[in-house]
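Holo model, calcium ion. Inputs:
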Amino acid sequence: RGDRAQDRDLAGRHVVISAGGTREPLDPVRFLGNRSSGKQGYALARTAVARGARVTLVSANSALPDPAGADVVRVGTAVQLREAVLKAAADADAVVMAAAVADFRPAEYATGKIKKKDGEDPAPIALVRNPDVLAELSAGRPRPGQVVVGFAAETDDVLANGRAKLARKGCDLLVVNEVGERLTFGEESSEAVVLGADGSETPVAHGPKEALADTVWDLVVSRLP
Ligand code: CTP
Ligand code: CA
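Output:
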């Protein structure tokens, strides 16, 4: 943001950010998870603190150190993340869902470690749907004018899939990243386009995750009542 680095345009605002990736346990030692590092969500938290916001960071299984000045709530599963985000969102001006939330969780949790048996094929793992936190937030809006932002990683037809997802979720902004084998996951930089429910399209060049984060905050600030 260069010459605008002094802006404290989020002063007096409460923002909630989810980061990392949920883990859905099968038994006490195993889980279904994903490769999200939490870097983008943590960059959003750092930049929001720098811009003067009160920040609640709901962090799912990230190994990153707590960002200075943010309230960090640690969660494991999608159900726990939902509870923490909805609670913090009650008085939030903006909610940014940067976490990779598992779409499904194992239908059963084994309280003891699952063991293999000689000569027996493994049993299939039955899954059930997790709640869609972003869709619920977008429909709920506990605070009038609250701005809700989602993230989507797409491999094909990035813009078309992003537009359809934005409409389906009902959020105000959707940050769409193109991902492939070596793109984005765990990397320091990313390339993205931010789609607005108002039809706007803001491309963000390949660069540090802080730059994308600051663009997201610019777009959020311009939508705050
Ligand atoms: N998300 C969520 N709750 C879920 C799944 C996703 O809140 N159960 C949020 C993510 O945090 C992200 C956005 O929704 O901000 C988009 O996630 P994505 O996985 O791309 O969307 P899905 O609707 O799950 O679509 P897909 O079938 O492509 O995975
Ligand atoms: Ca998903």
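Residues 103 surround calcium ion (ligand 2) (CB under 6 Å). The chain has a mean pLDDT of 93.
Archived with the compound record.
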